[in-house]
# Entry
Amino acid sequence: MDIAVVVNLSARKGSHAFAARARKTLPRSRVVATSSLDELHRFVEETARGAPPKLVLSGGGDGTAIALLDALRAREVAFPAFGLLPLGTGNGWAISTKAPRPRAALEQVASMVEQGLAHPPTSDYWLVEVEGRLTPFAGTGWDAELLHDYKLQRAAFPKRLAWLAEGFTGYMASIFGRTIPRNLRRKDRPQVRLVNLGAPALRVDAEGHVAPVPGGEPGAVLYEGPYGVAGAGTTTDLGFGFKGLHLARTLPGRMHVRVYAATAAQATLHLPKLWRGFHPLPDSHDFLLTRCRMDFDREVPVEVGGDVVGLRSSVEYRLSEQVVPVVDWARADRSFSLDRC
# Structure
């Protein structure tokens, strides 16, 4: 199996030490440690000139995976099997694929090689396209604000204490110390208008059955009013196990579009259910769509794959035509366990 491992040295847990471990565990693979987009693009350019690997392991966070896929698509390289190594902060997409700890993932791939597998077990992932970028999730509202607050909090801590403001603890401190208090004080809530631009809208009822949305044809306004979070995605997790798009894998060829209209106070009371992806939830407007547009009554911060890209008054989400074969770590783990017996 021809394998390439890309390690983002700028990711929270990315390091030369991990790259060295990858070389030791997978001695016949190509391991590239990158610290900039230019270096990542050089790797993709070299890949485009030769025979592409059968498997690419993306070592970083959601942003690393997105940058890699965008670069491959720009050079018209067919997507190889794509394995996510959770070396970032939130690792939403990796968690959604049941990715194990990075070292365990390397060992599982090594086991596949020893077994002589030509291809790893994979599951198809459709992605969302936003402003020409591929992403497993994107949106605006409290999630985008939280990302901004998290970065501000990290920057405010002295370097020797930076670890206190990072990871899950840092996110919780940002939520309860900055994002929620600010929204509790806010009286003028932002408004959104959700317009269906694709196939007739579908929904999931309380029993988990998929059904058409009455009046959900192309051009229909599916929701109009206040919101706390408004976004779309094809992966259930947004980071740290938060299942913010719990319906994303319900139906192939559809993305979960969600407008959560509860106030900050109501959301705080429902936080455990929100975190677990409880359905149905009061004030949550959930749709399975192929393409849509969200228009806002003001400019709002928008995040794409965990990175805030700027202020927008309108955002269009569409399901990408390209499908990514992503390593099914659960199936790989079963094979790995049997191999060790």
Notes: The chain has a mean pLDDT of 89.
